[in-house]
């Protein structure tokens, strides 16, 4: 009698410690088993099961074709999803969702590492661009009027040293012409110059450029106190190709920081 009582107690103990499982025999049985499962676990674990079921459901959707997706949208529970979760305990469901999230993170990390590499290469190319521009050095810049046969013509006189390590055939620049104490420049704008014979690396050359005086350049007065600043924006190599076209924006920088913070240990 004592043995029978002990066995009954043991069976009751084992049964009470067994986690409830989902029943995938039908949709109705599945829904009922989900409700029963959540009633027999803690609120915290029930919330984790709810979240896990959503994750598993979304994963099943992503694995279906567009037709499968429409089928899933038109039914409350997909048969395939029910089969997948049949006989699963709450712990099983949570573990499945964790595995899905881990796999997704691995896929995201692989993609993120590729993007990080691309952005770092882009940043390095931009640094090289900045270096090239800084080594095409404007030694002096003057703006003045020079007597001509019919009328005085505006001259922009530039002296530039090329230390880029390559031949430059053309450059684009931004110029600003003002006077001391004047808040607004007489004129500012972009211009370009295709260099006759190019300029070799190590050379210093001086050019007298004549801008179109029927544009804003013609508004510059004939004064002795003109101050000219020139910033080189673009350089073209010996084949006429832009060798300074690499860009790395603030948005690129912010994106790179976020990706490295999330997906690397740096």
Task: Please explain how this structure is put together.
It is a single chain. The chain has 7 helices and 6 strands, in the order ααααααββββββα. It has a domain at 133-236: Sandwich (Immunoglobulin-like), CATH 2.60.40. Mean pLDDT is 86; it is low at 12-16 and 65-74. The longest helix has 46 residues, at 90-135. A 3-stranded antiparallel sheet has the order 1-2-5. A 3-stranded antiparallel sheet has the order 4-3-6. It is rod-shaped and about 105 Å long. A hairpin with a 7-residue loop joins strand 3 (168-179) and strand 4. The chain is of the alpha+beta class and 266 residues long.
Head-to-tail CA distance between termini: 68 Å
Helix proportion range? 40-55%
Which sheet architecture does the biggest sheet show? Answer: 3 strands, antiparallel
Looking at the overall shape, the CATH architecture of the domain at 133-236 is Sandwich
Written as H for each helix and E for each strand, in order along the chain, the element string is: HHHHHHEEEEEEH
Rg over C-alpha atoms, rounded to the nearest angstrom: 37 Å
Fold-level CATH name of the domain at 133-236: Immunoglobulin-like
Contiguous helical run count: 7
**Strand content bin:** 15-25%
Oligomer: single chain
